[in-house]
Amino acid sequence: MKRPTDQQLRERLMQPGPKRQGQPVDAVTPPDQEMAVWVTLDMLKPYEHNPRQVRNPKYEEIKASIRAAGLKHKPPVTQRPGEKHYTICDGGNTRLQILRELFEETGESRFHAFYALYRPWQSEVKMLTGHLSENDNRGQLLWIERAKGVVDAKAMYEEESGDTLSQRELVKRLAEDGYQVAQSHISKMLYTVEHLLPTLPNTLYSGLGRPQVEKLISYREACRLIWERCTEEVAPEGFAEAWHQTMAWFDDEGQTEMNWSIVVDRLCGMLADHTGVHFNVCELTLDNIVTYRKRRWDLEEHQAFEALDVELQQMRDPDAQPPSLYPPLPETSAEPAAGGAPVAKVSASDSGREPQSQPQAEQLPSPRALGRDALSDDERTESAELLRLREQVAALEREKEQLSESSSPVLRGIGEPASEPGPVPMAATPEEEVDWPEGAARTEAERAARLEGLTQSSWQESPGKRGYRHHLASELGVPSFDFEQLAPLAAPVLSGETTPPIADVWFIEGVEDEPRSLRIRIRELVQVIARWGGFGGSDVVVADDDGIGFDLNPLPDAADRRARFAWQALASLRGELNPEYPSDATLWGALLGTHREEGDESAWDDAVLLRFFRLVRLIRRLREHLQGQQEAQS
């Protein structure tokens, strides 16, 4: 090959190079895999949708550690398409802020430039869930911060898919993106952001915890149900505004617990002002709803709205039911109801009065009229009727004091009316024997000791609910008792179960002595034994409105020995046994605790045992009612 001349080489070197085919770029494309990158503070920016809105409680501790030992845990970064800056991902905003403060304070380069872990960009919702997970693990997020983050994630998911996500699907999507949250919390989080955050922002961001929020939700829902019950008195859409105006007064910075006694008082006042229902009725209904929903009871079946419905009926049609006073007036009252306070009897001099001078219950104003109409703003003087009633109450108090001073130390029998005051007996010497009723406590100290021995855990009953229970029994003409009253005489039991305390294993109050109420109480006690066996609240126990109140489905194949014992015990009450489960005499020996093998924990504790006795009594009584109905039909 002939060698080119110098002129030819010079001409070739002077020829232009190849032309560029693509468009020029201002920045290099971000990497598509994880890698370490050298960054400075000027190249970084925090995540603008960071769920943490309140300063990290460990802020000063983290800052002191970085100042002393440097940045040990490098914050992960990512880069959105088209952006020049790196964005903090999966937590690290607190560390970025600390680095900027330390660089301003010290000027040291180790706080200005460092290697960071780069992660390829995925999506906005991936960024959000990463921050939720990391912040929750490193420093406990507030409830409202978690709730707000979940709501934002839900909105991003729905924007991506174009469909509304169910709570179950939302939990699944969050778990796939690395953030675990219980499905039972999702509804409460959504409720908090929608209904509580606009009213109590300062309190929520001060650290109001989940238990307090759940209690607040229960009270709001109970108030809403009462509001919607009063369809003729208020408009349903007005509840949100009334709730906001009432609860906004409780919004305070630094508040982590609500003063629930004042909250309930204000809520009942709000309901009474808007609906016209008496304050005590609102309080009783509110307590019923909150208590029954906590026990997962059906509100209609357990008559949670009974007092409210009676009040509304009388408000809407005052002539439908004549008003009555409770307690009844002394002149018109008959023998006192069992367990109630003694009432005055009409004396011979009073019996000779003319009929028109006798006060009649139907002529007296109702409690509503006494509170709203009889005493106006301009007239503060008491009416003659009210003055006469107060004089009668004072006379009853004096007579009660005389009876207490002159009565014998022997306790009266249950339901026995008070006798006329007699002469004051001489004090008995310690050696004298007094004819006490069997099982009765002789002194107040003995009464208190017996009451304490029968109380396994506290049971709260508001004065309003107790008074209403006694009033209902008085209206029906049946006796009603309290646990404290029967404790020195009977064998009741008070424990922390979800069922009410058993005032007497045998005695059945008149208001419950009918098939429907008996079936309700039977199902409650059956659930106690079912919960002991581990299948309470499941599909194993089903309601039976025709038989003895309950029926049983087979247990799962993986049921343990304890569950089979409990199932067999309940099935025996129906006369149905499973031959595959224990069915011999040792079953009852193990359950009753009279026979126990080594390491065996199949015996009922005292609370379950006494409720089983009560269950047997109620089923026997229900059988008597069913037999009476069959005989009446035949």
What's the layout of helices and strands?
Elements (H helix, E strand, L loop, with lengths): L5 H8 L21 E6 L3 E2 L13 H11 L7 E2 L7 E3 L4 H14 L6 E6 L5 H15 L4 H19 L5 H10 L6 H14 L4 H5 L4 H20 L9 H9 L12 H16 L3 H16 L11 H11 L31 H4 L15 H6 L11 H23 L37 H11 L8 H14 L6 H4 L28 H19 L7 E4 L4 E4 L8 H14 L10 H8 L13 H28 L1
Parallel strand pairs: 2-4
Antiparallel strand pairs: 1-5, 3-4, 6-7
Helix pairs in contact: 2-3, 4-5, 5-7, 9-11, 9-12, 10-11, 11-12, 12-13, 20-21, 20-23
Protein name: ParB N-terminal domain-containing protein
Organism: Franzmannia qiaohouensis
InterPro entries: ICE_PFGI_1_ParB, ParB/Sulfiredoxin_sf
Distance between the termini: 130 Å
**Which strand order do you get reading across the main beta sheet?**
2-4-3
| Backbone CA Rg | 37 Å
**SSE ordering:** HEEHEEHEHHHHHHHHHHHHHHHHHEEHHH
**How many H/I helical runs?**
23
* Helix-strand category: mainly alpha
Give the amount of beta strand, in percent.
Answer: under 5%
Main sheet properties = 3 strands, mixed
The helix content is 40-55%
Sum up the overall morphology in one term.
elongated
Count the beta strands.
7
The average pLDDT value, as a whole number, equals 76
Query: Could you list the spans in which at least 5 consecutive residues all have pLDDT below 50?
Result: 332-382, 407-441
Biased composition (Basic and acidic residues): 1-13, 370-382
Organism: Franzmannia qiaohouensis
Biased composition (Pro residues): 320-330
Protein name: ParB N-terminal domain-containing protein
